[in-house]
Each structure stands twice: as C-alpha cells, then as structure tokens.
From TrEMBL:
The lineage of its organism: Eukaryota, Viridiplantae, Streptophyta, Embryophyta, Tracheophyta. This is BED-type domain-containing protein. Residues 102-170 form the BED-type domain. Residues 79-104 have a biased composition (Low complexity). SUPFAM superfamilies: beta-beta-alpha zinc fingers (SSF57667), Ribonuclease H-like (SSF53098). InterPro entries: RNaseH-like_sf, Znf_BED, ZnF_BED_domain_contain, Znf_C2H2_sf. Residues 1-24, 66-104 are annotated as: Disordered. GO terms for molecular function: DNA binding; zinc ion binding. Keywords: Metal-binding, Transcription, Transcription regulation, Zinc, Zinc-finger. Residues 68-78 have a biased composition (Gly residues). The keyword Transcription regulation applies. PANTHER family: ZINC FINGER BED DOMAIN-CONTAINING PROTEIN 4, ZINC FINGER BED DOMAIN-CONTAINING PROTEIN RICESLEEPER 2-LIKE.
Amino acid sequence: MVVREPDTPAEEAAMSMEDDAMDDDYYAAAEAEADEAERELEAQNEAEDARRFILGSSADAAIEVDGAGVGTGTGTGTRTGSTSPTGTAAASASGTRTRSRGPSSKVWLDFEEVTEIQGGKEVRVSAICHHCKNTLSAKSSSGTGHLRRHLDLCPAKKEKDRHGRTQSMFKFNANGSFVHWEYSPSVARTELCRLIARLDLPLCFGESDAFQDYITNAHNPRFVKSSRQTTARDLIGLYNNHVEQLTDVLKNFSSVSLTSDIWSGKTKEDYISVVAHFVNPDWCLEKRLLGLKPIEVAHTGVNIAERVEMVASDYGITDKIFAIVLDNDSSNKIAIDVLKPIFSDYIGSLMPKPARIEDDLAAVFLHQRCACHIINLIVKS
C-alpha cells in the first residue's frame, strides 16, 4: 500500500486530525466492547444466582424442606416437595430478590447501589460514591467503566488514600519494655529541625520533593513536608524551649565556668561561642553550648565582653562564674578587664576580703588562658 505524503501544511494538519479521529473511534469501540463483555458477565452471574436460589447450592443436591421433608432438584431447574410460605420463597413470590453475593466487579466496594422495582423486577438505576457522595448513573444494562474512571478522578478518594492510612508500631524503651507508637506531625517537625541543626542543612531541606518522597515511600505515607518558613518558626520555638530547659538545669549548680572563642562559618561570617562547663552531682564534668552570637563588628575587647555578658545574662549565671577560658589575644585581656566587675560575685566571695575581684590577684583566677593556644604559639615560634 502506498502512503501519500501531504502536499501542504494544511493538508498535513487535516490528515493528522483524521488519524486522531480514527484513534478515538478505535479506543471508543474497544471500551464499548469491554463494557459489553462486562454486562454479559454480570448477566451470567445473575442467572447463576437465580439458578442457585431455585435449586439450592447444587443442582443435584437434596434440599431440606421445613426441616421434615426432602425435595430433589434437577438440572432442568425444576424441584419437587412442599415449600414454606416464608423466607426466601416468599421473597421470590413478592417480586423482590436478595442476592446471595454482591456484584462481581470490585468497583462496588466504593459505591452503593440504588435499585428500583420496574416491571416486577428489581433493577439498578444509579450508584452513590462512598467518598464524595455524588450519585452517578449505573443502570443494570450498563457497564462499570465510567464508575472506575470516577474513582480515578475522585478528589475525596485521593484525600482519603493520602491521609486515611494509619501507621502504628511498638517502640522499645531502654529497659526492654515497649509502648505503642503513633505518628505525630509535631514530633516530625521537631525532629526535622534537629536534623537540620545537627547536619548544618539549609532550611529549605524539609520542603524538597526528594525528601518527601524518601519519607513517604520508605517510612511514613502520612508525612507532609514543611516549608522553610514553617521550619524557621519551629527552630526559633525549639531554641527558646532549649534555653528554658537549660536555664532550669543551671539553677541547680552553684558555680559554672565558661570557655569562649571566635568561630568562622562556611559563609565567612564570624560568631563568638560561649560554652558552660560544670560538675554534676555524680562528679562528672559536663558542658553545654550556651550561645553562638554573630559578631559583625571589630573584634575588640569591649565587643567580646559585651556578647559574653549577654549570653551569661540570658541564662542567669552572671553571679556563678568561677573562671573564663580565653586565648592569649590582647583583645581578650581587655575583655577580662571589662568582665571583672560583672562576674565578681562568685569568685570574689572565695577570695580573702582584702583581695576582692577588683584586685589584679583575683583577676588571675578569673581568667584562665587556653593551654592549646599556648602550645600552638610555641610550635609556630
């Protein structure tokens, strides 16, 4: 067969439209053929239901009548013996029929049949979607293809599929016991903030499609991603909660020592870190990061002292400072001079009265120089 090539763009477009129409006709015919086959199958199933109703569970099986007599059934659909005027026989005589099983198509798991009595026969006229409650035409003589297509597009079903699946499991405690665990969106957001902080990830990490696909497909299908704005708010709330908890912990200690140094981030921004060190009731040394404040001004002693004092005030430990460890930079010496009167309460109470914190002797105990920095200077020299 010779295929003629189009001579003009208009003719080419017309031929393309003709091909599309032929494809549509083909798929429409195929779908109609499938619906017709399904209707024939449903008709066969209904006929089988009727045969089983009349003859019993088997065409040749004996049927007990009223608990006293025995009737016989034949393959031709006849039966002998007396029947009770009640029960299924009465239902059949009244023109209604109760199905021994539901429709064969699985689509009816998501729909409710609406039937009417027409010509003395119960027929299906419509179907109600269990999800969106919409009523669709579903005559007994029609197929169920349009019902399946409705389920594919039903927004209420999609929402239920996304949120309706529950996830629960048992979580084991350290002592070997276990408790029932359920997914909590608030806990998921908190743990996302902790992950971002520990791995120094960008705030937009939680809103990425790749991260959501990983969690929903591998761990929890109910997970909903968080925007960077939500993550930023959650981080601030988590930080404030951490400050409150750590402040309560530090209230139980009479003295705390500090270490501080200037640290540069990946973006070349400078921060000053303040770390608290203390001995717990079990005589174990512990440390907690109190603050990482940006220092956008010159690294002078006054600016360093101002930020260290700010962090100590936030935690209410200005009267509990035993010692501060700083390196040997000249600006740190000036910072100690500024901090001496601010941190005078605790270290001053340990000194003899003639030598209070204002004295140079007391300042020696307050300022502890960094041994690692000293060793580094020795190696460089």
